[in-house]
Design brief:
By secondary structure, the protein is of the alpha+beta class. The chain contains five helices and 14 strands. The protein has a single domain, classed as Roll (Pnp Oxidase, Chain A). Bound molecules: flavin mononucleotide. Flavin mononucleotide binds next to strand 3, strand 5, helix 1 and helix 2. The site of flavin mononucleotide (FMN) has 21 residues, from strand 3, strand 5, helix 1 and helix 2.
C-alpha cells in the first residue's frame, strides 16, 4: 500500500558538497549544498538566488566544489545556518541564520590555492574540483523566482591519494560521502554487488 502525502522537502539522499566562491572584497566564502547532480564532466547545482554564493558565482563565473566525506560532518554542521551575506535576508533571520564573514575559520577548515580559478579548494575535503559557470537559470519560477540552477563545467580535479589505487582510479569502497537524507546526515554502507554497467563502462572510458 502507498499513501499520497505532501512532504515539505524532497531531500531523498544526495551528497553534501561545499562550494567556495570569491566575495567582492576578495575574501573566500564557503557554503554547503546538497542539490547537485553530475553528467559527463559537468554538474548542475541548485541554490537560493538570495545566497552570497550565487551572487559571487554569477559575478566571478568561478567556484570550487569540495565533496564532504562523512568525517567532515561536524564542520558541515557548523556551516549550517550561516551566510556570507550581510545584512542577512529577513527570511533567513527568522530561521536563525547569522552572518559569518570567515566561514573557513568558523568551520575549522583550511583554504588551499586552486590552480585554475580564484576561489580556494578546501584542504580537508578528499575530492576537490575547480569549475567554471556555464549557464544559470531561474528554477521553479512559479514559486517566486528565488531559486537558481547553475551549470558548472569541471576543469580540474584533485583527489586525496588514500582514495586511489596504483592506476590512479578511485576505489569506491574507500569513498564515504556525507549524504543529506531529508534533514539527517548519512553515509554509504556496504557494497551490494558491482553494477552490470561496470564492464562496458570500464571498456569505453578506461580502455587505454
Ligand atoms: C547540509 C546542508 C545542505 C544544504 N543544501 C542546500 C541546497 O542544496 N541549496 C541551497 O540553496 N541551500 C542549501 N543549504 C543552505 C545554504 O548552505 C545556506 O543557504 C547558506 O546560507 C548559503 O550561504 P551563502 O549565503 O554564504 O552563500 C544547505 C545547508 C546545509 C547545512
Amino acid at each position: 500500500m502507498h499513501q499520497t502525502i505532501q512532504p515539505q522537502i524532497l531531500y531523498f539522499g544526495t551528497p553534501v558538497v561545499i562550494i567556495s566562491t570569491i566575495n567582492p572584497d576578495g575574501t573566500p566564502n564557503i557554503a554547503p549544498i546538497s542539490s547537485i547532480w553530475w553528467m559527463n564532466q559537468s554538474c548542475m547545482i541548485g541554490m537560493s538566488s538570495r545566497s552570497q554564493t550565487i551572487a559571487n558565482l554569477k559575478r566571478e563565473q568561478q567556484c570550487t566544489i569540495n565533496l564532504a566525506s562523512a568525517d567532515l560532518v561536524h564542520a558541515v554542521d557548523r556551516l549550517a545556518l550561516t551566510t556570507g551575506l550581510s545584512p542577512v535576508p529577513e527570511y533567513k533571520q527568522s530561521m536563525g541564520y547569522v552572518y559569518v564573514p570567515d566561514k573557513f575559520e568558523h568551520a575549522g577548515l583550511t583554504p588551499v590555492a586552486s590552480q585554475t580559478v580564484q576561489p580556494p579548494c578546501i584542504q580537508e575535503c578528499p575530492v576537490q574540483m575547480e569549475a567554471l559557470l556555464e549557464q544559470s537559470y531561474v528554477f521553479d519560477a512559479k514559486s517566486g523566482g528565488h531559486l537558481c540552477a547553475a551549470e558548472l563545467k569541471i576543469n580540474r580535479i584533485h583527489i586525496e591519494e588514500a582514495l586511489l589505487n596504483d592506476r590512479q582510479r578511485i576505489v569506491a569502497e574507500r569513498w564515504h560521502p556525507l549524504i543529506m537524507n531529508f534533514c539527517e546526515f548519512f553515509t554509504t554502507g556496504t557494497t551490494i554487488y558491482p553494477s552490470r554497467l561496470a564492464e562496458p563502462f570500464t571498456k569505453q572510458y578506461y580502455s587505454s
